[in-house]
Write a structure and sequence with these properties.
By secondary structure, this protein is an alpha/beta fold. It has 18 helices and 29 strands.
Amino acid sequence: MTNFRKLLSLLAAGLVCWCPLQAQEEGFDLTSQRSESQDVRKVPGHVVDHGGIIINPMPHSLEVNAAQRLDLSRGVAVKDRRKAFSEDVDFLKANRRGPVVDIDFGAKAAARAGVKPLSGAYALSVGEKGITIVGYDERGAFYGIQTLRQLVASPAAAGGTLPAVEVNDYPDLPLRGVVEGFYGTPWSHEVRLSLIDFYGRFKMNCYIYGPKDDPYHSCPNWRLPYPEKEAGNIRELVEACRRNRVDFVWAIHPGQDIKWNEEDYANLVRKFEWMYDLGVRSFAIFFDDISGEGTNPERQTELLNRLNEEFVRVKGDVTPLTVCPTDYSKLWANPTPQGSLAIYGRTLDPSVAVFWTGDVVCSDLTPETLEWVNSRIRRPAFYWWNYPVTDYVRHILMQGPVYGLDTTLTADDLCGLVSNPMEHGEASKLALYGVADYTWNVAAYNPIDNWERGLALLAPEVRDAYRTFAIHSCDTETGYRRDESWETETFRLADRTPERAAALRAELERVVRVPARMEQCANKELLAELRPWLVEFGKLGERCLRALDLMELYAGGDDAAFWAAYVANRMTPDQMKAYEAHKSGTMKLQPFYEQAMDDMASGLFERLTGEKPAGCKGIGSFQNLRTTLSKLMFDHDSTTHYTSGVSQQDGDWIGADLGCVRDVHEVAILQGRNSVDDVDFFDHALVEASVDGRQWTALGDSLRTVYDIRWTGEPVPARYVRLRRLESPRTHWASVRSFEVNPVRAERLGFEVEADDLTAALYAFDRNPSTSFLLDGALRFGVPAGAKGYTMLLQPDADAAPASVRQYAADGTLLSETHVDAPLFRLTLESGAARVELEGALRIFEIIAE
């Protein structure tokens, strides 16, 4: 439901809310309909002193009398009145003469114990003589056992004695759990089994099996039975869910090629029968992320109602169906009475639960979004929360707190909530710990406190190291933004103070220690999933520390020493590739490193020349233009691109700040992710320039469906240049591969330049130290009149011989030859020198004539 680059359209562009589903187009990129907020909301909550008693989810009622204790050190005698829990009390040592643990369930016993008449409700009493657990049903008694399990493991039970407690508890939402509904690598069988144990331990009651890349769940093989090995795995998963009192919900995704005829209805029922024979007793049908005739809502409800009558009710032991509609998000749902959700409300059997992702695909859970959908489907929605899923940002790990879930909601507003996690199952447990807490006791949910408890649970022996990694590994960078690094203050070069630098250094030193410390984590499965990110996290900390040192060196004024250390702290292409594949610290740490390096390079250039460098900074109406993502427009690499991450709207624009007023004579912009058929671009736009950012002058006429934009003309003074969206029905994202203002041209330099790759070589003369040219051969350039020498900002190849520098007279006579002996290399011109030649292996940032 989230990796939309792969998918066909649900709705035609420009008819997002209003066109009937039968008019849907094929071949449309669903990414265009993504509209997550770029606002980064702060994490609510606070740390609570639990007195050494750690129970998750938080019970509705918990009373503790620490003065009374029950000694369990010699074991207990379990009295399992219903003979249902012999496998569930293995955490207690058996002793027939020990205190009694009395376990019972049923409506009558629950009524006597004051237990709420609700599935999953229970009472737990620990006294000086023994322990009593009473559940409203079997699941409730099982949950009471899980609370006892956590109580025994709590710090307050150290030494083998428990404080006296009284717990009266119940779930707020009927359905609480996980949907394995992401794109990409499905979980391994072992990870699924581990997660199912986790669900049961923390009182989640449903696991919806629906991995998009399982061909027997979806196209092309949904009509076929599972092969023997896969069928055996399903049996094991069903059995594991039974042990953990979790409903295993098998989902089918037939909509992309389903035929609304008797043959395919029989195929569907036959598949359900096969799954029933494997032990499945709960089923879901997904109609998400499809196009074509399968999207017809009337046909969908006819199918579901018929299955209810002819399969669910006939079997007798099958739970009510769940459906994911094609219109699962408000962003593209038809809001009228003719829309599919309203059709669901009028025609779908009330027992069928209906999934909903909110206002957009990845979004917060709010009363407003539930009111909107519930009024149409005429039942409390089943919330499919696309968090911590990362199939749309697979280079990111989500390890932050669970928040964005309204705490005033009740079962009257939603029948349940399931989390769609990451493909990294063990690393998803931190978020699922929070989901379990929220869905059980909504009003008491405390995001920060839950996160702190979750860290201690998952990696107790390395908790501090895990916390340091997690607090800097929360954000998606674009899309569904999450707060990150909220305890760390970073700063720009101009705002550096000794106090700020010292505080940041202390945190960065912790970051650097994390990878080695995490190797002591006892949860080896978690460690294996985290390790690629941990490695890059430690390297990021080292780069940031060196950037702090560079700031001091820069302030000292020794330009040669500074530049030598500066180029040593730049990321090589291979290092950048590794970091981009496993990113963390995207909100503060990585921006600190990049901005510090940029600020110092710009400052050095201005110190050497007395001029501001010619670089650009991204500006515009999209909030993520303020992040380092905007640099992708200025990296002179058309294979990378900035993307807005939200739908374009009237008044949107993307631009460049030149740093000061300059004469603008050329603007070159590459829109979209390609120049052929991409949908993420302004299809009606205008290039404009401004001195002050308030009054704008058009540079040329308006443009329609133009990917490659180029304007040249008489110079216009401007500090800001932008591409502004004009009237258009388009609601796609916006992407820009390149945004160049006054790109350096050989004919404008005033001297000749010769190189194998002339376009790249011109970056050595673009007055911008943030760009560079990798020389592997020879670069020749003419000496302009009046030049007395050059300052060259270089990065020699440490593994190659020193580069040669030769000076020639106009007639070709060699005047002198020397070697590059430092990254900041100063060359004094010989009398009569007309041409300079550099030959060797080095990166050239800038060649500045003096």
